[in-house]
Amino acid sequence: MDKIRLLGRQTSGNVQKVIWMLEELGAPYVREDYGRQFGNTQTSEYLALNPNAKVPTVIDGDLTIWESNTILRYLAATRGAQLTGATPGEATEVERWMDWLLGAVNAPYLTLFKESKLAPEERTAAYGAASKEMDNLLAIAEAHMEGKEFAALGKLTIADIALAPVLKRCMGFDIERKPTPNLDRWMESLLNREGFQVALGERQSTNAAAA
């Protein structure tokens, strides 16, 4: 297969998902810096690839894909069946957590991400509301992870790969929240994986080519 082009900045949680997936698969790829800070996601060329002007975008041969969870599903379907369910029923156990991430976690996460950059006295009421919502969401994940090593099927799947880069940030926000020993244990285990370390920029890839 052709080398995959991954367009997106290293520091994006959604780009980190894709980097980690590619590293786990050992799929040849090249990552190119794209994002608002590079001034290249509003160009006509990029908008023709991704009309949302966001990252990541993946180019695999003649195919262009955007939306990070869709990219993970595509890579699992084409290169990594072991990272998803073997049956439609098993797939629901994996993909429900990917949809939960987008449908439930994403909105309070974005609020906390933006307002955490402000001084405490500058934060709005939305920050407090998002903090309470995030505490409840992390409690859901905490209860699910009791006695489990992975989010689904007893093995690493695209559920873990989708969740971990974002939940790592959620767990690091300066908010009041209940203890999450099960989530802490899960995260610590995943942080020992080389692919996740590469995604976070803590280790050099031996799989990715220079842009």
Automatic annotation (TrEMBL):
InterPro entries: Glutathione-S-Trfase_C-like (IPR010987), Glutathione-S-Trfase_C_sf (IPR036282), Glutathione_S-Trfase (IPR040079), Glutathione_S-Trfase_N (IPR004045), GST_C (IPR004046), Thioredoxin-like_sf (IPR036249)
Annotated family: Belongs to the GST superfamily.
PROSITE patterns: GST_CTER, GST_NTER
Stored SUPFAM superfamilies: GST C-terminal domain-like, Thioredoxin-like
Enzyme class: transferase
Protein name: Glutathione S-transferase
PANTHER family the UniProt entry points to: GLUTATHIONE S-TRANSFERASE GSTA, GLUTATHIONE S-TRANSFERASE-RELATED
The organism's place on the tree of life at top rank: Bacteria
Enzyme Commission code: 2.5.1.18
Transmembrane segments: none
Residues covered by the GST N-terminal domain: 2-83
One Gene Ontology MF term: glutathione transferase activity
Domain GST C-terminal span(s) in chain numbering: 87-208
Record key words, sorted: Transferase
